[in-house]
Amino acid sequence: MTTDTHRPERLHGLDALRGGALLLGLLLHAAMAYIPAPIWIATDLTASTGASAVFFVIHLFRMTTFFLIAGLFGHMMLERRGWMKFALDRLSRIGGPLVIFWGLVFAGIIAVLLWKVAIDNGGSLPTDGPPPPPLTLETFPLTHLWFLWVLLIFYVVMLAVHGVMSIDRSGALGRLSDRLTGALIGPWTPVLAAAPLALAFWLHPNWSAFFGIPTPDTGLVPNAVALTAFGVAFGIGVLLDRRRDLLGRIAGGWWVSALMAVATGAAALYLAGGLAPRLAPLTDPSAKAVAAWVYAMAVYASTFAVMGLTLKFVSGHSAVRRYLADASYWIYIVHLPLVMAGQVLLLDAPWPWFAKMAAIVAGVLTIALVTYELLIRHTFMGRWLNGRRVPWRRPAPAAPVLAE
Predict the structure, then answer these.
(1) Phi, psi of 28 (to 5 degrees)
(2) pTM of the model as a whole
(3) Secondary structure of residue 218 in the 3-state scheme
(4) How far is it, in rounded angstroms, from Cα 372 to Cα 370?
(5) Are 109 and 143 in contact (CB under 8 A)?
(6) Phi/psi of residue 284, each to 5°?
């Protein structure tokens, strides 16, 4: 029941999974134009339920997985550096990009939206449109960078809990939390973790069973469902860093989590009305309660399934995975305006939806990776975003000195 003290310097598999969760955001946003429902900048004429399947599966586990790993790595950094250095690092590498890049990203999104409006208006912008809504705490458009704001909120809570536990010189609170973590982690984890999220779904007056966790991209006070879903995941990650030995239990039970994820995910999709998205919220309390419980279990079962698979099969070091994990932060920051521009460009292309989506993903990845390599990785920006700057050329190893 004690914390594992023999910890590796880097959990390569989980680092890659965190980067993969960010990269999947590119694919998810690319698919949204091809879902047969008016939910995006434009619904392409080639829209298909195939794109709905891509969206549903990715949206089910992507951000809970990200926040669980963020909680684990965040607690690891806090323990190693202390609260002051941790707070300064997070303000610089999380708060800084939010402040610096939000305006640029938002301007790019607005430019694409105006471009689409001009296309729909015969080539020019209308002059009699309504004024933009005023920016308030409730309407502030965080865009896809909302995850940085939510991370900062969770870090503040983690620091507060850490401060309370540090007062307990006997360590009783820590030992109790370790015992509770040991009881929490197992094949039953998705069922236990689902309870607060299912309640949050049920209490949400406009919950859509297909779209699951509503994205907290508008307003500086995140919605209760997102705070619950991501907060539970983040908290589990923090607890797991104290009980790193339990990662082996998660890896060993990957197949149980995977079976549960497939079963509950399929059931959640059925209860949501299938792959043709139903935008109207569920109104029948009983049906809503069942759908909420099943979807919540699918969220955490799929999260632990991908985590267990990663720990079991791709936990070793890979130069390619490490590179993509490092690049994923920059790729995610800049991708959304580029994805939207690609979707507008290809609106009239006589291609099937999956060809358009593949072209958009490939094009955006190319632009983002080239700019990452030239502007970020080897400059001060790399140290700022990733915590290290990789030199353009690594120094050659010193030649051995031969004794005469």
Answers:
(1) -60, -45
(2) 0.93
(3) strand
(4) 5
(5) yes
(6) -75, 120
